[in-house]
Amino acid sequence: MSGALWTLLVTGAHLLAATAAILLALVHASQKGGERRLLRRANLALALSALWALAGVGYDGRGSELHLLLGLADLAWLWLLAGFFASDERDKSIALVSPLIHALALVETAQIAIAALRLPVWAYGVLPAPVSDALFSLSVMFQLLFCIGALVLVHNLYVGAAQPARQGLRWPAAALAVLWLYDLNLYTITYLADRIPAALEEGRALALLVVVALLGIGTLGRRGDLRFQPSRSFAFRSFSLAVIGAYLVVMVLIAQAIAYTGNDMAKAAQIGFVVIASAIALAVVPSRRVRGWLRVTLTKHLFQHRYDYRAEWLRFTDTIGRAGPQAISLHERAVQAVADIADSPSGLLLTPREEGGLAVDARWNWRSIEVPAMAMDAAAVRFFEERQYIVDLDDLRAGRKQDIPECASPAWLLANPDAWAMVPLLHFERLVGMVILARPPVARMLDWEDFDLLRVIGRQLASYLAEQTSQDALGEAQRFDEFNRRIAFVMHDIKNLASQLSLLARNAEKHADKPAFRADMILTLKNSTDKLQNLLARLSRYGSQGGAGLQDADIDLVLQKVTRQFFGKHELVMLDRAPCVVRCDPEALEQALVHLVQNAIEAGPENSPVFLDLRVDASGAHIEVIDNGCGMSPEFIRTRLFKPFHSSKQGGFGIGCFEAREMVRAMGGRLDVESREGIGTRFQITLPLDPASGLIETLRQQAGPATEVA
Q1: How many CA atoms lie less than 13 Å away from 689 in the CB half-sphere?
Q2: What is the DSSP letter of 653?
Q3: What's the rounded Cα separation, in Å, for the pair 273 and 252?
Q4: What is the spatial distance between Cα 338 and Cα 17, in angstroms, rounded to a whole number?
Q5: Using CA atoms, how far apart are residues 637 and 634, in angstroms rounded to an integer?
Q6: In which element (H, E) is residue 358 found?
Q7: More confident of the two residues 626 and 549
Q8: CA 54 to CA 65: how far, in whole Å?
């Protein structure tokens, strides 16, 4: 294309853009009603842009005079953008917008001042060439900063508006975006090439023509409600974009300042600075702590309410409703749902024990915390059911809460600095669980809004957990019913067989002609009959005898019988044998211990010993069976260990632990279990002491030191 033709096209574009801007301003001036304040601001911007376009007719487009007019036009467009934000006083209610607008106005004012200093009357009379060049580079960087900030505001203007308002805002927002996107590309190339590209500078009139056309379409369209309704995620992304833009500009400024030093190491210093700054950005920006601090700061200063309840509820339902073979259990999802709301990285779920109190049920990302077998006692359960408190553990540690009893704030929780909050899950005023939250990366004090939301979420989760518990109980009752029907047939057949064998034994006694045969047959039949009768007695015993058959028994003798059964088969190690007498059924206790020892042998490595420990204190006798096997998860202990007909062994009935627990309960005792995956398991049988034995043990402990001295 020849130079003359290009000049003609550029002149025509400038004239056309100026004419279109003036005509649109006249259309605005002729309109009645509407947003008169916005129209006046738009007319000022159009007039200054038209003046710039007319001044560029026949001019090379790169003079400081045109840059001065262009800076004034940009200020006018920024004023119009601020008018859109101020249409519902959003610039006053959201602290981020107004300071950013003022900062951009200051930057553009500085750019106008630089353009004024570089006018020919000053630049070639007073300013040396190096200073003029430095001012040019500084002006380009100011323009880059202005374009980035202005585009962030345009993005905020459109995305944060209510849906009806977007219909009226889309054309003005598109016009301003075209204007500053063109400038962003223009000044980026200028900064990289260290000179203004003539074609892009002269073609700016075409961008202005597109801006006027988009504004004209918007003027003819209907205006929507300009009430601003920003979401939290939108504000966080916008603020992050502004921070990134500011970081980019600061990095460019420092790198350029290093280059202006002019020494031989300037280039190496520039490269080193860029590498270090990029490394810092990569280390800090992905940080969860930094993101948490930004989110807390924005929520605290930009919004009346901390939570976006719609977003929180959608996330909650998505977490709870997540299913599939790879999904975590419902109890772990319950912990995650509460932790996500409070930005907590991990948590625990405690659920009621059948004996009373609370025990750990599920862990979510919190394997390191040590939890005792009884995490909280029955008194704590009653307190939370009556008071329905959500406890901030930091308040307890600082002494700001005086009305929380010790039972509701166990020492193992207060001693762990990572433990942050306790959220009770209540269903019809009954405690079905307790979520313990870990401290978030950016800790804060819980307030009324946290308590209200967590209380609502807790009740919803409690209903899910109660429903699952009811379904499990119904399924177990159905399996028991099926089992009882099968056992009825088995007992009937066994009774018939026992009767036939008894009759055969009696008939065999009549044949005395073969004494040896008779004796052997009678002995065999009697043994078989005894075994069948014993089996019938055991099958019919459960649930019928209650506490009958209890007697005083020495536990040490029972343990000796158990060890003799496994002698030569597997190593059993007795850690302690404190003498004590308890009220129990010795045969049932022996059978329960055999079940537990057999499970410990099968759980541990080959030839790994199983330890038996006997301790006596004021609460009773404690018999422990300890192994160092693979351990069990809280979910397995809760859902399968004591559930009949669930066995991890091929061909097993899954009633060993269930039978052991029922035997211990029938004697008035308790069976507890503590297990860690990869470490091992400890079963503990607790039996009440015989009153006389308890008194003797107490006297022995009190007289122990004196006896040793003697």
Answers
A1: 20
A2: -
A3: 10
A4: 58
A5: 5
A6: strand 358-364
A7: 626
A8: 12
Q: How many CB atoms lie within 10 A of CB 48?
A: 20
Cα→Cα distances 158→37, 161, 167, 327, Å: 19, 5, 10, 38
Give the distance, in angstroms, between the CA of residue 101 and the centroid of all CA atoms in the same chain.
Answer: 36
Instruction: Specify the pLDDT at position 457.
Output: 93
Residue labelled with tokens 């989110």: 295
- Please spell the DSSP secondary structure of 158-171, one letter per residue: HHTB-HHHHHHHHH
Assess whether the region 314-466 and the region 551-709 belong to the same CATH fold: no
3-state secondary structure of 591: helix
Name the one residue in this structure whose structure tokens are 């627990």.
Answer: 661
Domain range list for the chain: 3-230, 232-304, 314-466, 475-539, 551-709
Give the strand pairing for 620-627 and 581-584.
unpaired
Class of domain 551-709: alpha beta
**CA angle, 637 as apex, 635 and 638 as ends, to 5°?**
65
Dist. CA 678–CA 633, nearest whole Å: 10
Q: How far apart are CA 420 and CA 437, in angstroms?
A: 6
Distance CA 537, CA 528 (A): 14
**pTM of the predicted protein model:** 0.47
Q: What is the pLDDT of residue 544?
A: 45
pLDDT tens figures, 278-322: 555 555 555 556 656 566 565 555 555 667 788 888 889 999 988
Q: pLDDT tens, 616-630?
A: 888 889 999 999 888
Token pair 């060993």 in the structure block, residue: 656
Transcribe 237-251 into DSSP letters: HHHHHHHHHHHHHHH
Fold of 314-466: Beta-Lactamase (3.30.450)
Q: Which residues pair with 683 in a beta bridge?
A: 625, 673
Cα-trace Rg, the chain:
42
